[in-house]
Structures are given as structure tokens and as C-alpha cells.
Q: What sequence folds into this?
């Protein structure tokens, strides 16, 4: 029996690898693989092979030096995850099988234990990949690679077994008539009692912190350290410290010392899971169906449908049957973007954010908080111009799977394109204007800030003018890329993954960025020319909005051409030829 | 109502549809039949304006589908074998959206009526994900019929329907035809085609093998068997290599 399961696993991995290698014959995958490989090797493998080379971690990102604290934090985090596994989930045991596995393995003469073993072996592939990735990331902060790898494997494998065991236990409780809420109350009650007893014990043993103590960070740290080393905390965190021990061992000897304890916990979990006899098949079959739907949704670019149970979104405004067609697409995409959030909600959020910003600004006097908040708002505004289109995707990218439906409509192609871009453009512009307003209120609080209010207003107004057209242009580029090279951005139902896909995305992003820069050149020239002329007769903060107006006009013309071109691409887009290359 | 002259669709060197011509008049139901890969779905998708034809003239209610697609599309509805609905719009939001796209002023009573007829009245606020396959198909039908199309295409209309749904779908198609719509149905279910279609068009390897009323087709391929059913006719028609387009153009109705 196990040989058949091994055969399935072995050939699945082998065939998947071979098909990925064969795919490299296509230039787009080969180019993607080269770029993706270079990216991974530069960021992860190079520092691993040649310490001191490649991108260095920021000093603030380094792990705290005190191993005692690291162990305490890691063990506590593990304890919280473990507790969550007993409190949060409300479903029966779900072993994630694919639909094919359900169809072939469930009716086959394989014991439940055999299926569990099969899943445990399969889960090891994902765990090993995660271990590799985590080691590549965490090794940049130093330490021995093999110790980190083994440590990560022990932690992740134990956690995986614990989550499975907890799900078996939850299912058993449900089978015995104990509801999810009864279980939660029971678990939290028991944990609460233990914590109350521990707190009581600590208060008896250690003098409590007084109000002035809280002002002294060292005193607080020392107190927490004493609590962590008290008997209740040592007992409660003991199994979790055992699990994280090997990862945190500084050398081979320390690792070997920590290994038996961690292995003991791992084997105990294995015995617990394998000896559980819980009927998981029905829930797993249902979960596999939902997983298949989710995967299909992700592969078709519909991330929202994949994000769990969809919620009906309220109409953002009343859509009357008469009027311009682009409004219908705008309305449709706003529903998609703002599930449950209406226009009124957005106005309230904006008012609250601006109110808080004005309040912070009134604190004034060069205080750090308003200045930092203002700088963050300004950075986010700039960032949203460059990367916002990657987040707000309620356009052709979202509807690539529905293009044949959109093509049925009696609407001119440019109107479809304009309508499809309206929602993300309006959302991005709204967010950017809000960030700009916050930055304009707060940044001038910086000590010795050189600009007076008219200058600040002039700069903010100029940027606000330029942003809508800029957003349309930056949206035209990725949408045109989708219609020109759908296989690059959404490669049909095959859904390729891996380094080559990462490389493809990098190439696509760089291409979009370059196209964006090229589109900015005429607008920059117009800005420069008008600014130069206006400066002859006016101060710079009067000349700037005039120049921005000229730049906006150029950008608007570019955006209009872009939208018309996008419509043309949409009209001639033939998904069937993409599927029959 | 539907006039097709020399419809051709190429994928590179491959001719998915090769010089197909036919017409469908108001009230007629044309059954598009043929083996897998014959070009039925490709033809329908070209006729619906979803994919651009490589050649030929397609006229819908007098409007050239290639030169004036917006006017042509105002009169047609296409129902694919799998209902295509927006995951994030509710049942009623689908109808509101479609009403705006087709400018159906005062659509609310008609939409309510359609939903009641299709037994979706109680699911107005449901998302497609909360509907069964049959209900999704009903919603797609409600959306397609809201603007009272004069030309309707069905691609495998009975897929996934229960016996009651099948009966209702057949009645609905015939009712629309009686109301003056020109209908094209692509299907492998020859008994369905035989039951509700007034005309048949047989495709093979992208080419038209035969075109005419069921009686005309039967006469052509029955080999003196007056009571031959469509299945027997179909096998005889598609068993041999298709005749050249010039040969089939003579007995055809429209081409």
C-alpha cells in the first residue's frame, strides 16, 4: 500500500519538475527563470555562500542579542499559536487532499492511518521548502546554517503535528456533542485558571511593580525576566522552550544537548496524531472541493473570490438604467473593491483621518509625532503612485476571466476601457489626496521648515492636480500588458509557479516602470517650459501650479490616447488564440 | 435577422471555421451540430462578437457585426454552456448592471417578473457563489433576456439542468422563437435539436457539410430511408470527408 502512495508522490514531484524544465524551452519562461534565479541568488543565496556579500540586513532588523530573551519570546509565541489552535478554529478535522486524491484514495482500500501517514509525508515537502526559505532569510543575521535548518524543521514539524492533533481533538469533541463555544469556554477557562494561579504565585514570590517602576525600562525588563524565571513560567513554557531549543543553540554541542528534548516532543506529537482515530474524510472531501475552487480562482486572477466566503457588497450609489456606460463599469468595480464600504464610509474615514491630522498639527512646536506621521503620509503618497496599481486591481486584470462577457456588451471598446479603469483611478486618487492633505498639514511642523503656508498649499495643489491623470496612465500600462501578454501575467489555467514566475513578474514590473517613466517625459517638458515662463513674472509658488496645470493637460492627453489604445487592444483581444498558440 | 457570408476563423495556419455561410430568419431555430472540434463554439463566439472573425460578413438585424459591433450587439444575447457571472455582484446587481449597459429604462418590473418566472425572486441579494448551478444558469438567462434580444445563441443549453429545467428551457426557446426571435443552438444532443429546431446546419472540420430544414437534410442523407432520424443522418453526413465549399453552396439556404 505504502509503495503505491510513494509511487504517487514520487511521480507527482518528478513529473511536475520535468514539466517545469520543459517549459523553459519557451523564451518567456527561460527569461523569467534567469531573472528569477538572479534575484533569488542575489538576495538569499549569495549572503549564504559568501558571508559579508550581497544585501545586508538593516541593523534595526537584527535579532536581539540576548539569547534568554529570544528564547522567551519564541517559546511564548509558540504557546500563543498552540492556544489559538484550540480556541479559534470552528471546523472539523480538515486534511487538505486534492480533488484527485479524494477521488482515488478515499474509495481505495487504504486505512485511515495510511491516509494520515500519506498526508504527513506530503506535508514534509512544504515544510522542507519553508525551512529552506526561512533559513535563507534568517541566516543573514548570522549563525550556523545547518543548526538553523534543523531547528526550523523541528519547530515547523512539531507545530504541524500539533495543529493536526488539535483538529482531531476538536472533531472528537464535536462528535460527542460539545459545541465549539463550549470547547472555547472550557479551554479559555482552564488556561485562565492556570494563569490566575501563576499570577498569584508570582505576586507571593516577587514584589509587584510600582507606578514609578514603569518609567524605568531596565526595571521592567528585569521584572519580566524574574517572572520568566519563576517556577510557574518555567513549568508552563517548558515544552515550548524544548521545541525552540535546537534552533537557538549557538553551537553543535548546544544543539546536541537540546535535540533529545525537542525530538521527544515531536515523537509524542506523532504518536498522538497517528493513534487518533477520527473520521476526517467527509470534511476533507468538502475542503478539497473548496480548495480546488480557491486555486481555480487564484489562477484566474480572482483573488477576492479566493479569499474565503464572499460578502455581498452594497451599491456605492444608485445606478439608473439611462446614462453613460462607463459609469456601469465604475459602479460594478466599486462594488468589487468596497465590499460593505460605501461612499459615505469613505467620506467619514477621510474626515476622521484629516481631523486627527489637524489635531496633531495643532500640537505643533516641532513635536516628533506629527512630523513623522506627515512624512509617512508623504512617503505613502509617493509609494502609491509607483505601486498603488499593483494593489488596486479592479479593472481588466480582475475581469480577465470575464472578457468574453464584457465583449458581448453593446458598448464602444474605449468606453469599456475607460469604465474599467475608473474605479481603481478614483480609489487611488482619493487615497492620495487624503495622504497629501495629511502631509500638507503635518510636514510643515518640522523644526525650521523652510516653506510658508502659500508655498505648501501650492505644492500640494500642484501634486493634487497631476495625480488623477498620472493614475490613469499608470493603470493603462499594466492593463495593456494583460491584454498584450496575458500568458505572462495570467498564464491560463496552468497557473505556473516557481522561480520563473517570480522572474516574469519582475520583468513585467520593470517594463511597466520604464513605460511609466517614458510617459512622464512629455509632461515633465511641459512643466519645465511653463514653469520657466511663469517664473519670469511670478514667484515660484505661483508658477508651480501653472506648470502643473500644463503637465496635467499633457498627461490627460496621454491618458486619453492610452485609454483609446486599451479599448482597441480589448476589441482585438482573442483569448482563444492565447489558448491555441 | 442573422446573415452569415463566408465566415472564416484562423488560428495561425489552422482553419477552425472555413467559409461558412447561412441565414436565420425571425422565428427560426437553427441547430448547429457537428463532431467535437467541428467549429461550432468558435462559430457561435464569432457570431456573438466575442472573438473577431478572420474573414466573412456577419450581419445581425441588418448591422454589420465587425464594422458596427455596438449596434449589432444591442439585439443579441449569448448563453454559453457555463453561466458566466461576476462573483462579486448579487443577483439584483447583475440585473441593474445589465440594464444600464443595454439602457433598459424602467427595467425593474421586467426584472422582477423574470426573477419570479425563473424562481429566483427570493434570492435577489445572493451572490453567484451562493447559488446552485441551475440557479446560476437561470440568472444568466434573466440577464440575457432583460433587453428582449431579437437574436439569441445557446451553446449546449441543457448542460447541468434537471429534467424540469430541461423542459422549461425547451419551452422557453420555442416561446422566444414564436415571439419572433432568431435562435441558434449549438448542441451534441441530437434529440434536442430534432425536437425544437426548424433548421439544421452540420459542420465538420470547420466546414459546412449540410444546411436546411430537417426534411431537406434527411432527404439528402437518408439514402431512401424516409424515417431516418437525425442521429442516422448525422453519422452519414459526417462519416465521409466534407464536400468542397462550392459543392455545398448550391443546395444551401443562405450561402
A:
Amino acid at each position: 500500500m505504502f509503495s503505491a502512495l510513494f509511487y504517487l508522490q514520487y511521480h507527482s514531484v518528478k513529473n511536475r519538475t520535468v514539466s517545469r524544465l520543459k517549459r523553459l524551452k519557451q523564451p518567456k519562461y527561460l527569461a523569467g527563470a534567469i531573472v528569477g534565479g538572479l534575484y533569488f541568488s542575489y538576495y538569499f543565496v549569495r549572503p549564504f555562500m559568501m558571508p559579508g556579500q550581497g544585501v545586508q540586513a538593516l541593523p534595526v532588523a537584527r535579532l536581539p542579542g540576548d539569547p534568554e530573551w529570544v528564547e522567551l519570546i519564541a517559546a511564548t509565541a509558540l504557546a500563543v499559536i498552540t492556544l489559538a489552535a484550540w480556541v479559534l478554529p470552528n471546523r472539523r478535522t480538515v486534511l487538505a487532499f486534492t480533488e484527485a486524491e479524494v477521488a482515488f484514495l478515499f474509495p481505495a482500500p487504504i486505512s485511515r492511518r495510511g491516509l494520515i501517514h500519506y498526508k504527513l509525508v506530503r506535508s514534509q515537502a512544504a515544510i522542507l521548502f519553508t525551512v529552506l526559505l526561512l533559513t535563507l532569510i534568517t541566516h543573514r543575521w548570522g549563525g550556523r546554517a545547518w543548526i538553523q535548518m534543523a531547528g526550523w524543521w523541528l519547530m515547523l514539524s512539531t507545530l504541524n503535528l500539533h495543529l493536526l492533533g488539535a483538529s482531531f481533538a476538536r472533531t472528537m469533541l464535536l462528535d460527542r456533542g460539545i459545541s465549539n463555544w463550549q470547547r472555547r469556554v472550557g479551554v479559555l477557562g482552564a488556561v485562565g485558571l492556570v494563569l490566575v494561579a501563576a499570577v498569584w504565585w508570582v505576586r507571593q514570590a516577587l514584589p509587584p511593580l510600582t507606578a514609578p517602576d514603569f518609567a524605568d525600562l531596565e526595571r521592567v525588563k528585569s521584572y519580566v525576566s524574574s517572572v520568566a524565571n519563576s517556577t510557574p513560567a518555567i513549568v508552563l513554557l517548558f515544552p515550548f522552550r524544548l521545541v525552540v531549543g535546537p534552533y537557538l543553540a549557538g553551537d553543535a554541542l548546544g544543539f546536541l544537548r537540546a535535540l533529545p528534548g525537542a525530538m521527544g516532543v515531536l515523537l509524542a506529537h506523532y504518536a498522538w496524531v497517528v493513534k487518533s482515530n477520527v473520521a476526517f474524510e467527509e470534511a476533507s472531501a468538502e475542503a478539497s472541493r473548496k480548495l480546488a475552487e480557491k486555486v481555480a480562482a487564484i489562477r484566474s486572477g480572482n483573488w477576492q473570490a479566493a479569499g474565503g466566503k464572499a460578502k455581498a457588497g452594497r451599491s456605492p450609489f444608485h445606478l439608473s438604467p439611462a446614462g453613460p456606460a462607463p459609469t456601469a463599469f465604475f459602479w460594478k468595480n466599486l462594488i468589487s473593491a468596497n465590499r460593505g464600504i460605501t461612499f459615505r464610509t469613505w467620506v467619514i474615514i477621510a474626515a476622521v483621518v484629516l481631523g486627527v491630522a489637524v489635531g496633531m498639527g495643532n500640537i505643533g512646536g516641532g513635536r516628533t509625532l506629527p512630523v513623522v506621521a506627515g512624512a509617512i503620509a508623504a512617503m505613502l503618497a509617493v509609494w502609491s503612485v509607483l505601486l498603488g496599481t499593483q494593489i488596486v486591481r479592479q479593472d481588466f486584470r480582475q475581469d480577465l476571466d470575464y472578457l468574453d462577457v464584457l465583449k458581448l456588451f453593446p458598448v464602444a471598446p474605449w468606453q469599456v476601457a475607460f469604465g474599467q479603469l475608473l474605479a481603481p483611478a478614483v480609489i487611488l486618487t482619493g487615497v492620495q489626496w487624503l495622504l497629501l492633505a495629511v502631509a500638507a498639514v503635518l510636514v510643515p511642523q518640522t523644526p525650521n521648515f523652510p516653506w510658508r503656508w502659500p508655498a505648501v498649499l501650492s505644492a500640494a495643489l500642484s501634486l493634487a492636480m497631476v495625480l488623477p491623470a498620472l493614475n490613469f496612465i499608470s493603470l493603462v500600462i499594466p492593463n495593456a500588458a494583460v491584454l498584450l501578454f496575458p500568458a505572462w501575467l495570467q498564464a491560463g489555467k496552468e497557473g505556473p509557479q516557481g522561480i520563473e514566475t517570480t522572474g516574469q513578474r519582475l520583468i513585467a514590473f520593470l517594463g511597466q516602470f520604464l513605460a511609466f517613466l517614458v510617459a512622464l517625459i512629455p509632461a515633465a517638458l511641459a512643466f519645465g517650459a511653463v514653469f520657466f515662463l511663469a517664473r519670469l513674472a511670478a514667484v515660484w509658488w505661483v508658477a508651480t501650479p501653472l506648470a502643473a496645470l500644463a503637465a496635467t493637460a499633457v498627461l490627460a492627453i496621454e491618458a486619453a490616447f492610452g485609454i483609446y489604445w486599451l479599448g482597441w487592444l480589448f476589441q482585438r483581444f482573442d483569448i482563444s488564440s492565447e489558448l491555441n498558440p | 435577422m442573422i446573415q452569415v457570408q463566408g465566415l472564416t476563423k484562423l488560428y495561425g495556419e489552422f482553419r477552425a471555421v472555413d467559409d461558412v455561410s447561412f441565414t436565420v430568419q425571425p422565428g427560426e431555430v437553427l441547430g448547429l451540430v457537428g463532431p467535437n472540434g467541428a467549429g461550432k463554439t468558435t462559430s457561435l463566439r464569432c457570431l456573438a462578437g466575442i472573438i473577431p472573425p478572420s474573414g466573412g460578413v456577419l450581419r445581425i438585424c441588418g448591422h454589420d457585426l465587425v464594422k458596427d459591433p455596438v449596434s449589432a450587439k444591442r439585439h443579441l444575447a449569448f448563453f454559453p454552456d457555463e453561466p458566466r457571472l461576476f462573483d462579486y455582484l448579487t443577483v439584483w446587481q447583475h440585473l441593474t448592471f445589465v440594464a444600464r449597459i443595454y439602457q433598459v429604462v424602467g427595467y425593474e418590473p421586467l426584472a422582477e417578473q423574470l426573477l419570479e418566472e425563473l424562481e429566483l425572486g427570493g434570492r435577489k441579494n445572493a451572490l453567484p457563489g451562493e447559488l446552485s448551478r441551475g440557479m446560476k444558469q437561470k440568472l444568466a438567462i434573466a440577464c440575457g433576456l432583460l433587453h428582449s434580444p431579437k437574436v439569441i445563441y445557446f451553446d449546449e443549453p441543457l448542460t447541468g439542468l434537471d429534467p424540469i429545467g430541461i423542459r422549461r428551457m425547451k419551452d422557453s426557446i420555442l416561446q422566444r422563437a414564436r415571439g419572433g426571435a432568431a435562435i441558434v443552438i449549438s448542441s451534441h444532443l441530437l434529440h434536442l435539436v430534432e425536437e425544437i429546431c426548424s433548421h439544421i446546419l452540420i459542420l465538420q472540420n470547420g466546414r459546412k457539410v449540410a444546411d436546411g430544414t430537417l426534411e431537406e437534410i434527411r432527404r439528402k442523407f437518408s439514402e431512401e430511408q424516409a424515417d431516418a432520424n437525425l442521429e442516422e443522418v448525422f453519422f452519414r453526413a459526417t462519416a465521409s470527408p466534407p464536400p468542397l465549399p462550392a459543392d455545398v453552396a448550391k443546395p444551401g439556404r443562405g450561402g
Notes: Residues 247-255 of chain B have pLDDT under 50 and may be disordered. Residues 163-178 of chain B form the longest helix (16 residues).
